[in-house]
Please model this.
Amino acid sequence: GTYTINRVQFNNPSSLQLRSADGHSAVLTSVAMIGAPDGSLKAVFNRYGDQIFLHEIRTAGGEYQLTRSRSEKKLAEMLKGETLSASGSK
Model:
């Protein structure tokens, strides 16, 4: 799908908002800035079996990594994970 990513508060890089093209949104509060911006736009996912979890977001504003949920941690212990990525446009 198509999503936009924005900071919830300009001065707080640890809270991001994802909004889908159809208007649904989610606020992510457990993100850590892990790198400086490099101009690339990318979403990185971890896949365990048929379950996919958003893991990292790379934007023009920086690279952000999400904290793994309990569900993801449990699946990671049971199954070998696979990393997937999707690029976007500015």
Summary: The mean pLDDT is 79. The first helix runs from residue 70 to 78. The helical segments are 70-78.
